[in-house]
UniProtKB/TrEMBL annotation:
One of its GO terms (biological process) is cell division. It comes from Zymomonas mobilis. PROSITE patterns: FOLYLPOLYGLU_SYNT_1 (PS01011). Gene3D superfamilies: Mur-like, catalytic domain, NAD(P)-binding Rossmann-like Domain. Keywords: ATP-binding, Cell cycle, Cell division, Ligase, Nucleotide-binding. The gene is murD. One of its GO terms (cellular component) is cytoplasm. GO terms for molecular function: ATP binding; tetrahydrofolylpolyglutamate synthase activity; UDP-N-acetylmuramoylalanine-D-glutamate ligase activity. This is UDP-N-acetylmuramoyl-L-alanyl-D-glutamate synthetase.
Length: 269
């Protein structure tokens, strides 16, 4: 699993204990952090208790709802991407207490930043978009693997990222990132960020299309100038994002591929 000294001595509240939530609890405990964990499903809480009874006995894990528990000293709320923070009361509590709301991708970003500050170089390719991001992620991962590079595919695809063994120096992380995950991420500076397209989706979660577009845009606003943004500019929202990027911009377009070549694709043009 991915652990980090960055988490050591911190106190996190983890909300949602599906696969990514359980992996987050495991990684934080292994990093010598204290954890408060909660899921509305009592069977899930029971499984957590059975798995980590020793940590509970030592006071390193508390199974309690942070909405009613003592949250003094909490460093961050780590929430499942599926929790609708625009409607969940945790948002108001976090604002009142000045506690950040993050996701497991942000924890990875913090661990990754620590590696880079200490000379370990593992590039990150982040892929987002309304359609095609899973296919693009899998294809990039396949190309890197076939080229003989250590690589890991994660994020919104495959196993939870924090549950994976860390890559060696020079390994490449290929991450599919949903708008929900990007909403909860604040320090991920992708070496290459890819945008496939933007069409209306998840509008209830983001308060309308502009909120959804801005969620996608954040991935590119987090990039620093030495890095690369690869953006398909076939739709106007993607064109707007391309103009905001501080990274080296590479645009792609359906017209880059000849129509006669597209006809020969198995899926058609």
């Amino acid at each position: 699993m991915i652990t980090s000294p960055v988490f050591s001595g911190q106190f996190y509240a983890v909300l949602g204990l599906a696969r990514s939530g359980m992996a987050t609890v495991a990684a934080l405990l292994a990093s010598d952090a204290k954890v408060m964990a909660w899921d509305n499903n009592p069977e899930t809480r029971d499984r957590l208790q059975q798995q980590y009874q020793e940590a509970i006995d030592k006071g390193r894990l508390v199974i309690s709802d942070p909405m009613i528990a003592d949250i003094f000293g909490i460093s961050a709320f780590v929430v499942s991407p599926g929790i609708p923070i625009n409607r969940h009361p945790i948002a108001a509590l976090a604002k009142e207490r000045g506690i950040p709301i993050i996701g497991d991708i942000e924890l990875f970003a913090q661990a990754h930043g620590f590696w880079e500050r200490h000379g370990r170089r593992c590039p990150v390719v982040g892929i987002t978009g309304t359609n095609g991001k899973s296919t693009t992620t899998a294809l990039i991962h396949h190309i890197l693997k076939e080229a003989g590079l250590p690589t890991l595919m994660g994020g919104n695809i495959g196993l939870p990222l924090l549950a994976a063994d860390p890559l060696p120096d020079g390994g490449v992380y290929v991450l599919e990132l949903s708008s929900y995950q990007i909403d909860l991420t604040f320090t991920l500076d992708c070496d290459i960020a890819v945008l496939t397209n933007i069409t209306p989706d998840h509008l209830d979660r983001h308060g309308g299309f502009e909120g959804y577009r801005k969620a996608k845009e954040r991935l590119f606003l987090l990039q620093s100038s030495p890095h690369y943004a690869v953006i398909a500019t076939d739709d106007i929202p993607s064109q707007v994002i391309a103009k905001q990027s501080a990274a080296h911009l590479v645009t792609v377009h359906a017209d880059n591929i000849l129509a006669e070549d597209q006809v020969n694709w198995s899926g058609g043009p």
